[in-house]
Amino acid sequence: MGPARGREWHARGARPMADLAQWREYLETQPGLGVPSLYYADLLESGERLTADDSEAIRRTWANWRASGRHAG
Hints:
- The protein is mainly α.
- The chain has helices spanning 3-12, 20-33, 52-68.
- The longest helix has 17 residues, at 52-68.
């Protein structure tokens, strides 16, 4: 995903996610933004529930980010 898409998501901020597909795309961009966005822990405004696979994706995404050394501290 390119920098322009990351800026688009950053500008979006914590606005509601339309569906799980959009949330999953946003999860992939978060390490590039450098800030975990955990507004959605189990349920989207659409009524869709995050799955165990989604929870694992959150864990894996941020573990990889920490391991990459791209963060300060």
